[in-house]
Design goal:
Protein name (chains A, B): Helix-turn-helix transcriptional regulator
InterPro entries (chains A, B): HTH_HxlR (IPR002577), WH-like_DNA-bd_sf (IPR036388), WH_DNA-bd_sf (IPR036390)
Keywords (chains A, B): DNA-binding, Transcription, Transcription regulation
Oligomer: homodimer
Mean pLDDT of chain A: 81
Strand order of the largest sheet of chain A: 1-3-2
Organism (chains A, B): Rhizobium bangladeshense
Chain lengths: ~140, ~140
Amino acid sequence: MSLPRAKLVRNFPGCPVEATLSYLDGKWKGVILFHLMKGTLRFNQLRRKLPAVTQRMLTKQLRELEESGLVSRTVFPVVPPRVEYAMTPLGMTLKPVVDALAAWGDDYVFCSPEGRELRMSSGGLHAPASPLQAG
Amino acid sequence: MSLPRAKLVRNFPGCPVEATLSYLDGKWKGVILFHLMKGTLRFNQLRRKLPAVTQRMLTKQLRELEESGLVSRTVFPVVPPRVEYAMTPLGMTLKPVVDALAAWGDDYVFCSPEGRELRMSSGGLHAPASPLQAG
DNA sequence: CCGCATCCTAGGGGATACTG
DNA sequence: CAGTATCCCCTAGGATGCGG
């Protein structure tokens, strides 16, 4: 009753980064949060945003997010069924994280000019620097 | 020669968040970056920072980070061997991301007062709100 | 529309031992 | 010190089908 931390903290990670990442673990949690940040979505709406996700996996990851207290699941007892997913207040505290993730993806993975510049000059793969850059 | 993007982008993710997370994928990459952000480290120095990591896994994850261009590996041809790992310029662009991850972990996973408040009030697990909070 | 149950596989990741 | 090489297990995650 006084220990929601036990649920939230999964395997007592030693480092704050590790801790946070444990909640984003799984192939789809990050993207789910990213979309839910922008507003409540029904199951199939969410599914359409994630073209590659399986029904099973979407359900599973949503349940885990719910169990972590990051996402709320609201069932409307109507027919056909209507289930809405939304960020909880706790979930919303992840916004800076998700924003940072999204920003980096935009800048350095998708084809922006600055991203390409840096990729060239950092040269991990091609350009040997001073002593012995491994291959 | 003009396509480092092919190496960097692994499976052409559809969303920037997904893209970024694909580089943090694996059990240890986040923590590795977290520690390397603070400065260059030798293999065993890094290992001591990650008490639970296996030699094999540390090597593997470092190689993947290197291949992504986020981390550089410098071999000094001396005996005993000396290998230093450091962030590349591209890797350093992840600092805002890693900082955000670390901050959230500190605030909401480790036992800070605000974190506990929010966990109680967001009540994903216990407190039914209006219609039917699932259980 | 939303989701569970079942079956199945690839590969992530641990343990341990050996090398330059 | 900084790795490879083996073996082996486990489970994340895909495919498919049923049900309210």
